[in-house]
Every structure is written in C-alpha cells, then in structure tokens.
Amino acid sequence: YHSLNPPLPPPEYYSEPPDSVHSRVTAAAAGKKAQARVVLVTGAAGFVGFHTALQLHAEGDIVLGIDSFNNYYDVRLKRKRAALLRRAGMKTLIEGNVCDGDLLKLMLRAGRVTHV
Fold it and tell me: What is the mean pLDDT of the chain?
C-alpha cells in the first residue's frame, strides 16, 4: 500500500526544455548495469503506468517515464503518483505528450531505450 499524500516533487521534475530532458535521460541511461533494460513507460503517472514503472524499477531496470498529466483523470492523483515514483528512486519522469515526435525521438535516442 502506498500513501497518496507524499510531498510533491519540485517543478523542475516535470516540465523541462529539450536540453534538460536530454541531459536527464542521458544521465539515467548512463547508470545502466550490463543486464538492465532501459524502459520507456508512457502514461507513467497513470494507474497502469505507475504500477508498471514501480515494478520495473524494483527489478533493476532503468525507467524513463513520460506523462502528459492531462485531466482525463484527476491530475492531483497523477502528481502524487509522480511523487511516489520519485521517492521510490525513479528520477526521470518527463511531462510531455508521447505524440510529440521530437520529444519521443529525443527520449528514445538519448536514453538508449531498449523497451517501450
């Protein structure tokens, strides 16, 4: 059971310029162990994405998350899930739309993603 009332991450955890996204994604991938996967999880602050990201991170994979934090579901709940992911040690969750081709290419290439 995870408390849904952790402190929220600082604003820079979410929206970032491309250079910042590139440096964070590259840094995350650089910490990869030989057998670890680098997994891009879309909708990482949603219900399924959140639990998937937690499990992959617990298994030792490098998890790069992306979420648009749209209002299809309660945004406050998504922000709290993002805080839980950060507290669990997942350091790279980018606020952005997976339909943004440039952002997606940047994350896939800079992060050396092996699985989506």
Answer: 82
